[in-house]
């Protein structure tokens, strides 16, 4: 979703049964501007506009938003902490630069969710498939990294 797209975060929060707070709206706005951000990056992005907010508060808000289905937690190889992005009604994957860590969304590999099926589901109903493509971004390649 383009960063200049306007999202009604208060309505989204109310729809998920969460109270609308200035802190939650700032966290959602930060994730809208910088998808695939760590809790620390979100904190760094909002602490100047919300003096007095604690990093632990940002972690708590991200956990609440993840539980409510507004935010998705993304775990990627070689990333020390979870990354967060706004939840979309899709089953997209990610491409990650192995040098600088840049992460971008990639459309579902085949059709609709879960888009990939294991050779054996052991009687379980597959809900989603998570794929991470490991790559080298053009800037890192030009700089001889990787």
From TrEMBL:
This is Transcriptional regulator, FUR family. Its cofactor is Zn(2+). GO terms for cellular component: cytoplasm. InterPro entries: FUR, Fur_C, WH-like_DNA-bd_sf, WH_DNA-bd_sf. It comes from Microbacterium esteraromaticum. One of its GO terms (molecular function) is zinc ion binding. The keyword Chloroplast does not apply. Keywords: Cytoplasm, DNA-binding, Iron, Metal-binding, Repressor, Transcription, Transcription regulation, Zinc. The lineage of its organism: Bacteria, Bacillati, Actinomycetota, Actinomycetes, Micrococcales. Binds 1 zinc ion per subunit. The keyword Transferase does not apply. Zn(2+) binds at residues 97, 100, 137, 140. Belongs to the Fur family. It holds the Pfam family FUR. One of its GO terms (biological process) is regulation of secondary metabolite biosynthetic process. It is found in: Cytoplasm.
